[in-house]
Amino acid sequence: MRSPLDRRSFLAGAALVTVLPLASARATPEAMAAAIKEVVGGATIRAGRVKLDLPPLVENGNAVPLTVSVESPMTPADYIKAIHVFNEKNPQPHVFDARLGPRNGRAVVATRIKLGDSQKIVAIAETSAGEFWSASADVIVTLAACIEDIT
Amino acid sequence: MTNVLINAPKTAKPGEIVEIKALILHPMETGFRPGTNGSIIPRNIIERFTASWNGAEIFRMEMSPAIAANPFVSFFAVAMESGTIGLRWTGDEGFLVEEQVAIAVG
Fold first, then answer.
1. Residue A12 belongs to some domain of the structure
2. Interchain contact B53–A (C-beta under 8 A)
3. Which of A16, A119, A150, B16 is the most exposed, fewest CB within 10 Å of its CB?
4. How far apart are CA A103 and CA A101, in angstroms?
């Protein structure tokens, strides 16, 4: 007959096994992590200050409106230098790199992007002091972009 | 070239923050899609969009194939002095389009 301790350790092990696959499925794909590392270098990325507006459910991945807004006074002493946007599952991890300065007054950039699959989008803002702030958004895409030539 | 739509105010008060929106006709072909004959359609995208105010660069965007066809960009600028806002798109296959709009500040 098994001792209670054995049963407890078995249950703990079973719990670990069920948790791990979930954690790895949500992990950032390597390509995006590498692309982010290329931009950020060794600096730490903090969550906050950045707002990433994207519809949570997209019917057509060919043109998805995206707005990145960053809290910043945008003065010559303290401004947002760059906004980078990355994706997880398009063929390439880059979406765009925008360069800004105090002449912009407001650190807000909007565009339309393509999404090849349901995925996570990450926006990273670089301040003039060299700090990095980020926000991410999950998007569900029902019709993916880049499947075939529709023209 | 007339395949460009620019939306910027014609007048602004000094120091006012104005929004500039620009749309350009372009296929933004990713280089990852097979065409009707089965072979990959070569990449043809706009790689860079720059905006200047009286010649001084105020905004730049490096684009990737993940930008939707007919790229739309919106950004802000502080209206400092009257003059022209210059917008420039460059990309694959020697793509180059330049447009200017006038703005009166005062």
1. no
2. yes
3. A150
4. 5
